[in-house]
Amino acid sequence: MDFKDLLERTKELARSAAKEVEGKLRELKEKLDQDKDGRPDVLEKALKEAEKALEEAKAKLAQLDQDKDGLPDTLKGLSEAAKKAAETAKAKAEEAARLLQERLGKKEG
């Protein structure tokens, strides 16, 4: 066998291998895309699940935010209660400071 025959045989083996790889690639694409829309089915499934999760999250947020102001109502209620508690604590501290000043002032006088 001369070099030219060896080269031709190598080319034929390379073509054959390329055709085999192309066939296997085609098979794999067909398995991954059963509905033949050009997108792998597993990717479509993941996107659908993500969209469903997003819709469920939006629905849950809507349930938590009945007045539609963008804040969950429970969180707003807790915030308002904390603000009132802080205001009450401040008022009591001011009253205690005033009473202490009065007592200290009476002792001095």
TrEMBL record:
Keywords, in A-Z order: Coiled coil
Coiled coil regions, renumbered to chain: 4-103
Key word Coiled coil present: yes
Protein name per the record: Dolichyl-phosphate-mannose-protein mannosyltransferase
Lineage of source species: Bacteria, Thermotogati, Deinococcota, Deinococci, Thermales
